[in-house]
Design goal:
By secondary structure, the chain is α+β, with helices and mostly antiparallel strands. It is built from 18 helices and 6 strands. The chain is elongated. The two termini are 69 Å apart.
Amino acid sequence: MFRIKKLDVFIAKQFGLLFVGTFFICQFVLMMQFLWRYVDELIGKGLSLDVLAQFFWYMGLMLMPQAFPLAILLSSLITFGNLGESSELTAIKAAGVSLMQAFRSLIVIVLLITGVSLFFQDVIGPLANQKFFMLLRAMKQASPELEIPEGIFYDGIPNSNIYVQKKDLTTGKLYGIMIYQQSNSFEDQAIILADSGMMHSTEEKMHLLLTLWSGEWFENMNSSDIGGSAEVPYRREIFAEKHILLDFDNSLNMDMTGITSSAQAKGIRQLTHDADSIDHHIDSLGHAYFAEVQFSTLYMPHLTGDDSLKLARKIASGGTNIDSVYNSLAVEKKIELFKIATQEAKRAVAETGLKSEWTDYVNKQSRLHKIEMIGKFTLALSCIIFFFIGAPLGAIIRKGGLGVPVIISVLVFIVYYIFDNTGMRMARENEWTIWFGKWIATMVLAPLAVFFTYQANKDSVVFNYDAYREFFIRLLGLRMKRNIPMKEVFIEEPKYLMDADMLTNVGISIDRYSEEHHLVRWPNPIKVFFRPGDDNDIQNINNVLEVAIEDLAFTRNKYVLMKLNQYPVIATHAHTRPFQRKWLNIITGLFLPTGIFFYFRMIRFRLRLYRDLQNIIRINKKLIPQLIELGNLKTEAEMLPVDEDDD
């Protein structure tokens, strides 16, 4: 039986507070990224605050399902990263609570968020999508003088095409203007050229006032006014300034034509119904086109319709040779038949092209509906997948805050976005199947979620930063500096005289080692890669040195502490062979490129060891007299009589 425990409440509170904060951050980032696509429709349009509020409100409702998985990923990473960094996760495991038991309260919360995400996409999202694009269309129609682009014709104004060579955004002036006006027919049109001009909306928002300077007006005259002459003259007018009033509804017209039929503006039930209807329509089109081809007849000028149909069926069945029928005709009939056949072939090609375009359009609509329907489920399911990626990664990495978790979250989301966007495009273009295109991101990240959860449950260090840092330090031979701080609590004074004797023995051992081994010489490659090469002498020297340093670390003397930090950290094996295992050394030596790399790496470590040993001798010469002095002072202090109070 599931019982709510204090640990569940504690973890749920930690996650809940972080989820609320990260959700608004993710929502803001997504809205800014989405707003960048439509910033031109907002700037300089004179929109009121209530219109802008509606714009951002509908945008936020549309993007909420996309913000849910990213917020879950980031908040779960930070939650368990904080628990691991503060050793609370270690205490939880020490109390006998497994990682999956620590997840259970959050699993319930994530399942609820998944249901909320699916509800938003099914009910609220389609309505918000309709309202958003309806408002966006109305905003595009507002202030068309700002919508007119440079260098191309703009047809957003009814019965007019406007070309502007250059615009001045500060003054609102238009330069190099060319206007094509057409009222009823092709003949009744006017061409207006002007050096510059300005466009403003009238107060009632129903017309556009276009003021032009230094231009010409070319207009065809009405043919009825000149007695129906075949030649239609035109009128030319040169003007210095001219005002033109154009019909244009500049108010926010909330027209939903074409928006409700979009797949993004439909819920799951409507998408399923419309997808089935489109598939049924596609099947009916296929049957109709097949019937047209199957029952098409050959045109025979000397036969009636029934005879032509009978002959066509006979030719199709193989009972009659079409060449013999054609050769039996007269020359005039052959020429006539050839012309008619050419026209029929052109017509068939044109009809086939139109039918192909229509079927491609219908098939694309069917795919869009199915993609949108599957996408609602995959986006909701990504909440669960992102949780089982973020929470285990936080438990493994054990880094809280907004540093490492944000980097990991961005990387995971980029991988998800690339696969999901690529799959959607390939499915939309019919390059991949729909289910594969929409499920590919889930199929890639789901195994990663299982792997991370398994590794976190087994206390794996596969993503431990310190482990990778130590590995690369050893691989690249980077120097690790000794750092011994001043102790705040001193349990026992160091044994200075004993430590001085140990350091003296270390110096003697180093002198003996330097005489027996020649570190400045190049080593024998055969001994390096194909024979065991453990250096026990250096290991013993390092052990004695570390024991003395560990004891002296509790000193109160700052000079001694400073000298201890100057002792180098000795690499005891890197100067003998690349790896501890013999078979790895053999493989490395046989493969020439890696063998050369590790051979010169080992030479570098030999030279560094030589310098380290010389440095130890120099430090000993300065430190040992100080230790002997401190040891003698300590001995004298211990030999002094202790005054006892007579009670």
